[in-house]
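Lab intake sheet, docking and co-folding queue.

SAMPLE TYPE: protein with bound small molecule
LIGAND NAME: zinc ion
LIGAND FORMAT: SMILES
REQUESTED OUTPUT: full 3D complex as structure tokens
PRIORITY: normal
SUBMITTED BY: R.K., bench team

The fields below were copied directly from the construct record.
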Amino acid sequence: MTPETIGMIERLIGFPTVSRDSNLELIDYVREYLRPYDADVRLTFDDDRRKANLFATIGPRRDGGLVLSGHTDVVPVDGQAWDSDPFKLVEKNGRLFGRGTSDMKSYIAIALALLPRYASRLTKPVHFALSYDEEVGCIGVGRLIRDLETAKVRPSGCIVGEPTLMAPVIAHKGKKSFRCSVRGLAAHSAYAPSAVNAVEAAAEAVAYLKRMARRSRDKGPYDHGFDVSHTTIHTGVIRGGTALNIVPHECTFDFEFRYLPSVDADALIDEVEGYINSELEPEMRDIDPKSGFKIVRLSEIPPLDTSAETEIVALVQELSGNHDVGKVSYGTEASQFQRAGIPSVVCGPGSIEQAHKPNEFIEVAQVEASERFLGKLLDRLI
Ligand SMILES: [Zn+2]
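RESULT FIELD (auto-filled):
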């Protein structure tokens, strides 16, 4: 591990870029860092201009080259018992501790720290894509990608450095999440038959989602390349009711589908809506025509399904020395690059096991493996 690498990891960990907060200090720091290398820097902001994506091109301005992509935001540390300050890098027993060490500032830091050795010799462009709001549903990177399309920047591949223990990952599940609001009609609970109980209606819809989840567990379709080999359906939050003697007039719940690339997720949501429209709402509306369900989409991550025959996959296999290809159940930004016509692979240092937990760390050996990998990769661009 070079002093430049550890210094850069320490620097990036020191910016407390929790998704709900601004990441602009980190973005400004990277922009200044890139200045001596004649970087072409494009920023795209969120609506409040409190957060930004950074896309930087170094080397010749032409098509091709590779994108090194990572998110700058980290998950919160609230309520977690840390043994040290999460935003101050601590090295201990061959591990680096700090929020974002594995997920995923080390990858960005290693690539930035290597740059001075290569910047003046590049014959193909290297692009850095740093995003905001990944942890809250891969929301930020969409603006970065649309900006690239407008600017007609056409890299030939993208490596997203999410923690895979340096194994090439070519597929991940898609995710669609929804909020369902149920409107009922309140009454004294002694007169329940004249009211519409929103909690009970929601419960029937949640139970239907659970039946769908069991069906996909028991009947597939399956892809055993994934650690969870089938589509999963889950309700994570439910709120409703105020007192036992009042029939509740409101209930909301949040649910998600995490689906295999081969599965049509729109058909899943159509099925739930079909059940609600035909089985639940008629009975509610017999009592109060204004009652019913409303479902809104919260977030969406398309699935990733890169062919194992793609050039970028072969390159990552060769440089990592790891010829297996993996599939993971969590979503990443790789699928959005892929959809924009940039073949994408996920491969980065550290383990997803350590992500989002107190005392998050990365093994120094992983940092070193990633230094070697990115060094060889940049060698290919000179
Ligand atoms: Zn991540």
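REVIEWER NOTE: The pocket of zinc ion is lined by residues 71, 103-104, 134, 162 (CB under 6 Å).
SIGN-OFF: pending second check by T.M.
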